[in-house]
Amino acid sequence: MLQRGDTIGLVTLGSPILNQTTINIGIQTLRNLGFHVVLGRHVFSYDGIVAAPADQRAADLMDMFTNPSINMILATRGGTGIQSIFPYLDFGVISRNPKIISGYSDMTVLLNIIYQFSNLLTFHSLMVGDFRPNTPAYNFDQFFEATSTITSPRIIENPPNIALRSLVPGNVTGPIIGGNLTSLVNTLGTPYEIDTRGKILVIEETDAPSNTIYRYLLQLLMSGKFDDCLGIVIGQCTNCLVSYGTTFDDLINALLVPLGKPMIANLATGHGYYKTTIPIGATVRLNATEPSLTVLEATVQLENPNV
């Protein structure tokens, strides 16, 4: 359980940092909140498309997991290349050294893989750049409720001005997984393919035209990922462009609604201004009739400060 005075380790696992000022503001905000901050060796490294070679970025992450003084691992950003560190990770060591870990965007793949391979809950939530003075209070409230309390059951609520929408009524209960659509599709056909069997699947996207989203949804459909899941939660498509007069919502209605899976839409998650916190791997109840999304278990533990 994350508390004031705990130590947060920062890692850059994908693309390099292009704006150090944003990261420095995040570091100072974390310190102002009462946390200590430790930087991975390659937080500010630059190696073309990625921050550093894959083995070095992986070593940074493993160092954070094995360092007993680190309570939470926080991504500086997502970006290209996070999957390249997977062959260098020791999921057994990660399982034996549980830590809170948070991020979104391309961090989606790591969050889900740690859950699949190490059986640890992870958090589709804030990154370092989201810790700034003008961050909406909603984002912080969601984050700290999930990482700093043992409250359960707990309803994942949207901001008051953003209503959840029911697309297909029904009620299902199971572990929640998913995140960024592009990142999920990139796991297909690899040893780290997303496992949706018996899960509630969340998808969100950013800066993608509808024709690209169409391709990605078809790929998940044809690979059986929507057949395998129990229910579907549609997040926001932030800054997504309309192609051929077809919107993101049009695609969801045409491709996913006919599946008949319990489904809600418009969850404030991922790349939008408002960011809820989704505990990847936690058991949740999806009520797609009312609609609501309820976490049924504590997502951190009181007795172990490293969880």
From TrEMBL:
CDD domains: Peptidase_S66. Residues 173-286 form the LD-carboxypeptidase C-terminal domain. SUPFAM superfamilies: Class I glutamine amidotransferase-like, LD-carboxypeptidase A C-terminal domain-like. It comes from Caldibacillus thermoamylovorans. Residues 8-124 form the LD-carboxypeptidase N-terminal domain. GO terms for biological process: proteolysis. This is Peptidase U61 LD-carboxypeptidase A. One of its GO terms (molecular function) is carboxypeptidase activity. It holds the Pfam family Peptidase_S66C.
